[in-house]
Amino acid sequence: MDYAMKGRGKVFFRGEASPIVEYDRTIRKGGKRAMRLRSEIAGLTVTDIDDDLAEWRYGDYEGATSEQIRTTDPDWDLWRDGCPGGERPDEVGARLDRVLAKARRLLPRGDVVLVAHGHSLRVATARWLGQPVAAGAHYLLDTATISAFDFEHDVPVLHRWNERPADRR
After folding, report:
1. pLDDT over 70 at 43, yes or no
2. pTM
3. List of residues 6+ apart from 112 with CB closer than 8 A
């Protein structure tokens, strides 16, 4: 199946380290040298580094599982509550809104790829679709998968979701 668009690019995103075809622009989260290496190993030339693509800042909950957190805070929900000492959902949403605004500015030049971690990409999905950050809870995203945002009649849509590279048609 041909995913080319007439005169407008798409925003592709994926979890770390999945092979992907060549795109015009690649924006990845800032930070570690390892992320750059994973992007390059996956065949991407990084054209922009954006700290706004960083994973949710978990603060006091960094390194803890949801089950561990719920032993002391049984009603805790990442998507509703955020993390003490870390980020609130609205803060994560604001960061990803800036990333998506940048991607939209680049689309007239061609496709854009975002490389980041799961929670950030799930927030980006919700925000692309005009939904609140908490809607990201409903978009399960596996590691090393490819997804794509697109437009239909100028309405932002989810074109592909959570595909393994071997699943591409």
Report:
1. no
2. 0.79
3. 9, 10, 11, 12, 23, 24, 25, 26, 27, 103, 106
